[in-house]
Amino acid sequence: MSQYIHHVPGRIRVRSKAFRCYGERASKAEAKLMAMKGVRSVQINQRASSIVVQYEPDLLSRGELFAALEDLGCMAAVRRDTTHANKLGETFGKALVGAMVQKVVEQSARSLVVALV
What's this model's pTM, rounded to 2 decimal places? Predict the structure, then answer.
């Protein structure tokens, strides 16, 4: 299931092709979210398959908000493990170091050729 989550403290937007907040379910989800301490506003856009929640980050944590959205069926479960992120960072780091080493070798080879000529 493809899902896009954009979060900055105080605002979260979830968009998904499998978005499940429609009709009466959307109204109930909006009412339950608005009843949560710290939620300022909830906008559900059924055509765009998205929900935007504005909240007070001092009163409501991202984890609590994600859990509520999951419970209401407004988003799929968010991966809580960091294995994927760690592997991605490791792969990026290796690629970056590899590219830097290659540049250094190319520069050294150029300098050697210039010195020999």
Answer: 0.59
pLDDT digits (tens, 9 = 90+) for 81-91: 455 556 666 77
Please check whether residues 41 and 21 belong to one and the same domain.
Answer: yes
**Are the C-beta atoms of 74 and 21 separated by less than 8 Å?**
yes
Residue range of the domain that includes 25: 3-71
More confident residue, 113 or 11: 11
Instruction: Choose from 28-42, 44-58, 65-79 the range with maximum mean pLDDT.
Output: 28-42
**Structural domain total, the chain:** 2
Of the candidates 18, 82, 27, 72, which has an alpha carbon nearest to the alpha carbon of residue 50? Answer: 18
Whole-number Å distance between alpha carbons of 36 and 59: 10
Q: What is the DSSP string of 6-57?
A: EEETTEEEEEETT----HHHHHHHHHHHHTSTTEEEEEEETTTTEEEEEE-T
Taking each helix axis as running N to C, give the angle between helix 23-34 and helix 62-71, from 0 to 180 degrees, rounded to the nearest 10. Answer: 150
64 and 10 in a common domain: yes
Domain co-membership, 30 together with 85: no
